[in-house]
Design goal:
Number of domains: 2
Strand order of the largest sheet: 1-4-5-6
CATH architecture of the largest domain: Roll
Shape: elongated
Strand content: 15-25%
CATH class of the largest domain: Mainly Beta
Structural class: alpha+beta
Order of helices and strands: HEHEEHEEEEEEH
Mean pLDDT: 86
Number of helices: 4
CATH topology of the largest domain: PH-domain like
Distance between the termini: 32 Å
């Protein structure tokens, strides 16, 4: 049996598919530009790296690959329990209990999945969560809506 099923926790992992898609697109454009600009010689695609456009595309490819590796290494996730939110990464974990929250601002339905803002008591900094960046965004929104109702009731 799943341990999160017994404790009532729901875990939402950060989606990395957008980074995979961007990396594939940038690589495709980079190779396509190399074929169009430089051509094929002896069965190999040659890319002129002195061309400013190819250098810019190469920077995009390297930057996207670095961000993808960083996000994959950190593995961010949100765990929502009965009366708390736990923001986790591989390096750090932060618990936010319902008693520590001053306000929980949810996005309006007309705008789709906006940003959830969590204001903590005694702190000026606001924690921002983008539900669409995580797996199962609708379920995550429902969990934060439940927490918002608990916060207003108690």
């Amino acid at each position: 049996m799943n341990p999160s099923a017994t404790t009532g926790e729901k875990e939402f992992r950060y989606r990395v598919d957008i980074y995979w898609r961007a990396l594939a697109l940038y690589l495709l454009v980079f190779v396509g530009y190399g074929v169009v600009r430089s051509g094929v010689a002896n069965g190999y695609v040659t890319v002129a790296l002195t061309d400013p456009v190819s250098l810019l595309l190469l920077v995009f490819v390297l930057w996207t690959a670095a961000v993808l590796l960083w996000v994959w290494y950190r593995r961010p996730s949100i765990v929502v329990g009965k009366d708390y939110v736990r923001l986790r990464t591989r390096l750090r974990e932060r618990w936010i209990r319902l008693q520590e929250m001053e306000r929980l601002v949810l996005p309006r339905r007309q705008r789709g999945f906006g940003r959830i803002r969590i204001r903590l008591k005694g702190r000026r900094r606001i924690i921002v969560v983008r539900p669409f960046a995580y797996e199962r965004p609708q379920e995550l929104m429902h969990e934060f809506l439940r927490l918002s109702r608990l916060l207003r009731a108690g």
